[in-house]
Each structure stands twice: as structure tokens, then as C-alpha cells.
Amino acid sequence: MKPSCIRVVLIVASILFLPATPSLAAYKGAAPAGVDLTGHWKINAALSDDAEALLQERLADERKQREKWLRRAREIDPLGIPPIGMPLPPPPSEDAEQQPTPPPQPQMQRARNRFVDELRRMLNISDTMSITQAGTKIDIVSAVDARRFDAGTQSQVSMPQGALADSDVGWDGQWFVIERRARGGPRVTEKYRWLKKTDQIESVLAWGGDTILSGIKVRRIYDRMSAPPPAPDPESGPIR
């Protein structure tokens, strides 16, 4: 075999046997010395991003895109004629033409409300939260969700849209990190850290991938509360 051919074979073999690069970071299970997120916390609106405003802006953009698509569809087929072979719909009556556009049906409106409520949970839009840290176990309870994590672990979980995601949870320096990625779907990175100088909690939440929230990043600052917040919404369900 010629030397040039041998070099090609060796290069291909080295590529094939390279160790696979993990898609997620390996976070630590133990918190840094002296770091404890435990407490009841209330959002400092003056120092935090307005997640609700960001959500409404994204929903308005979605509505505009949908209306643009509908206008484009009408331009392509202004008569709404179905494809060959499909029966034509009956013509509207004169009385129907004089009627105003009917409002959305109740079931459609309820479905839309559930969709928006799910987006609020995904953005963790809540004025308060409580954190309990005991060893590697961390519980985070807000008005919209209740979750339990085990730092230093990797697993697979279901995303809000139903996709199966790789989950990596643990400590990266001072930050407690929750990272979830669905192949070809949504991904989210959520981080918390205690600010020792001010006794506050800083959080960062960023969504990417295939989701309506892609590109939204929310930074929040929480002040410590002397008393626990009101009980969370029962619909948030048990700790998961």
C-alpha cells in the first residue's frame, strides 16, 4: 500500500475512534462551602427583567406571523377553492354574510389559555419562590411550579411540549444549574446563585431550540422574605 493511502486510512480510523463528546456538562453534586440557597424569596421587580412583558411581546409576534401567513394564503387562493376531487363547500347565505365574525369558541379559548399558562410555567413567572437545600437535594417551589432536583445527576425527563430531554443538574462554581436539551427540540438552562453581599438570589433562565420561547432570556433578583409566601397554586401539582 502506498504511504499516502496508509495516511488516509490512519486519519479515518482516528476519526472513527475519537471518544464521543458529551452533549451536557457534568456538574458537581456538592455545593461550594458556605453556599446555601435555602429560604423564602420575593422578586425585586426593579432589578429584574419583566418576564410577563417578554412573553406578551413574543405572543404578539406569533400573532402577527400567523396573520401574515393567512394573508399570504388568501393571496395565493383568494376564492378558497379546494383541490380537484374535493367537494366545494356550500355558498354562504345572505343572512350569514351580514353576521359579524363569531368570537372564538369557548373550547378554543380554554385551549389558548392553557397554552399561555404553560408558557408562564416555562418562564417561571411568579413573584415568590421557596428553596430548600439539604445535601444534594434541592426543592424549588413557586406559585406556578414545584420541583425537586438531585445535584450531580444526569437523567432523561419530559419537556413541557412532550419531547424527551437529557437533563443535567448540579453545581458549576457558585451557580446551581438545571440544563435540559431535547434533540431537535427545545432546550433550557436555568441557574441560581446566592449573592452573599446583599443576601439575595440571582437567577437566569434562557430558552432555545424549537420552542416559541426560543431566544428569551430572563434575569431575576430575589430578596429574602421573613415569612413564607402564600401557598402555591394547587394546579401546579405535587413536587416533581
Per DSSP E runs of 2 or more residues, the count of β-strands stands at 10
The CATH architecture of the domain at 25-57 and 114-236 can be named as: Beta Barrel
- Could you tell me how far the N terminus lies from the C terminus, measured between alpha carbons in angstroms? 61 Å
Radius of gyration: 25 Å
Instruction: Please identify which CATH superfamily of the domain at 25-57 and 114-236 we are dealing with.
Output: Calycin beta-barrel core domain
Individual helix count: 4
Largest sheet: 10 strands, antiparallel
Which regions have little confidence, pLDDT < 50, spanning 5+ residues? 8-22
* Sheet/helix structural class: alpha+beta
Please state how the strands of the largest beta sheet are arranged side by side.
4-3-2-1-10-9-8-7-6-5
- Portion of residues in beta strands equals 25-35%
- Average residue-wise pLDDT: 83
How would you spell out the order of helices and strands? HEHHHEEEEEEEEE
Keywords: Signal
Biased composition (Pro residues): 80-93
Signal peptide: 1-25
Region (Disordered): 78-109
